[in-house]
Automatic annotation (TrEMBL):
Matches recorded under PANTHER family: SERINE/THREONINE-PROTEIN KINASE IAL-RELATED
Species per Swiss-Prot/TrEMBL record: Volvox reticuliferus
Taxonomic classification: Eukaryota, Viridiplantae, Chlorophyta, core chlorophytes, Chlorophyceae
Listed name of the protein: Protein kinase domain-containing protein
Residues covered by the Protein kinase domain: 1-166
Keywords for the protein's UniProt record, in alphabetical order: ATP-binding, Kinase, Nucleotide-binding, Serine/threonine-protein kinase, Transferase
Length: 203
């Protein structure tokens, strides 16, 4: 979650957002030569969108990871991609903590019933932590702040990074890592194969 949040904060600092957190994350298990070099990596920008000139209005990705406002999205109902990404990151965190999804009905009689129940749970923000897997009150508080139906009230990336559960044991330099990297890249720009105009035309 920490790597995911720092990575997401870096992306959002570049005015982009991405949808479908499951496809946007690759859980790297390390390589055989360096088994202790474990990193969580953001791997796919196939569903990315620039956030400066327009708000997202599309509904793409895996339903289980979608925020309520994404499920309700349409041509006249746009949403804040940053806040929707926070919800999706919360689902990823929940799955890593408990080994199951916060919004799901694995006992549904068929796939359609399961999908319908999952969407209803998301829209109503109905979730609970399994009592069989104890987690700290701080962790539950963070999840409650993320799984908030109203995106205006949902925790921001800055609030997550300042949360006691997130920051416990986190090296101080980790919080400024993105700022340092962006500053370095700005000083020595990476040559791109496409111009800014070409990228904007796609977005």
């Amino acid at each position: 979650m920490r790597c995911r949040s720092r990575g997401s904060a870096g992306i959002h600092g570049e005015t982009g957002s991405f949808e479908g957190a499951r496809s946007a994350l690759e859980l790297a298990q390390g390589d055989l030569e360096h088994p202790y070099n474990l990193h969580l990596k953001i791997a796919d920008f196939g569903l990315s969108k620039e956030g400066v000139h327009s708000l997202p209005k599309s509904r793409v990705g895996t339903v289980m990871y979608m925020a309520p406002e994404v499920l309700r999205a349409g041509p006249s109902r746009r949403y804040d991609g940053h806040k929707a990404d926070i919800w999706s990151a919360g689902v990823v965190l929940y799955v890593m903590l408990f080994g199951c999804a916060p919004f799901d009905d694995p006992f549904a009689i068929n796939d359609k019933a399961r999908l319908d129940t999952t969407m209803l749970q998301i829209l109503r923000c109905e979730w609970a932590a399994p009592v069989s897997i104890p987690v700290s009150p701080e962790c539950l508080d963070l999840l409650r702040g993320i799984f908030t139906r109203d995106p205006a009230v949902r925790l921001s990336m800055a609030q997550i990074m300042g949360h006691p559960w997130f920051s416990c044991g986190l090296p101080p330099a980790a919080l400024t890592m993105n700022t340092v990297l962006v500053r370095q890249q700005t000083a020595q720009p990476i040559p791109y194969e496409q111009s800014v105009e070409e990228v904007n035309a796609v977005l």
